[in-house]
Amino acid sequence: MRATEVLSAHHDELRSMLTRLAELPGDRVDERQEVLDRLVDELSMHEQLEDEIFYPAVTAASPMVAIAHAEHRYLEDQVAVVLRTGPGRAGFDEEVRVLHEAVEHHAGHEETEMFTEVDAKLDADVLEQMGERISARLAQLRASRITRLRLRVKRGVLRRTPGGARRAG
Ligand SMILES: [Fe+2]
Ligand SMILES: [Fe+2]
User: Fold this and answer.
1) 46 CA from centroid of ligand 2 (Å)
2) Degrees (nearest 5) of the Cα angle 6, 32, 70?
3) CA–CA gap between residue 90 and residue 70 (Å, rounded)
């Protein structure tokens, strides 16, 4: 698969986790927390794959990379708000909806603009090789105990960020 296809497929996984989270009844707090934690970890890994491998390789092909970095920071802020609110509290559904919208905006932007440009400008072989690299790195991150621990710590830090505390009040 081309890098753009691998990343689009991962976008779809993020989308289905967001839908699952929105559909889970409010009283199933533990399940909601589980899905939320998995979503936050997958989103972190997705951004890491793009920041480390994809964006640096396509900066020349797409002017959207600079905007994409800013959008990742915004996503991280909203993740902090969702984590800080927590699945057992009022306002959670609304904050998840805002996150869903932000992910959709960013992923949609990448798919319709950035990936289209990159597919048109980069060599098919280069994109295939990059796709393999991204898939392998994702599998490696998912299997790594150190990564799991790092992501858990990161969630804890995000949960306590002032922005999240202020907005979730
Ligand atoms: Fe992105
Ligand atoms: Fe993406």
Assistant:
1) 6
2) 45
3) 29
- How far apart (Å, rounded) are the C-alpha atoms in residues 60 and 80? 31
Ligand nearest to the CA of 138: 2
Single-letter code of the amino acid located at 154: K
Ligand nearest to the CA of 55: 1
Q: Name the pTM for this structure.
A: 0.93
Helices (H), 1-123: 3-23, 29-49, 55-58, 65-85, 92-109, 115-121
Which element (helix H / strand E) includes 155? helix 145-159
Distance between CA atoms of residues 6 and 87, nearest Å = 30
pLDDT at position 112: 96
Asked if 39 and 18 count as a contact pair (C-beta separation under 8 A), the reply is yes
Q: How far is CA 109 from CA 24, 31, 68, 118, 156, in A?
A: 27, 30, 9, 13, 29
pLDDT tens digits along 91-113:
999 999 999 999 999 999 999 99
Q: How many CB atoms lie within 10 A of CB 15?
A: 15
163 C-alpha vs ligand 1 centroid, how far in Å?
Answer: 21
Count of C-beta atoms within a 10 Å radius of residue 12: 11
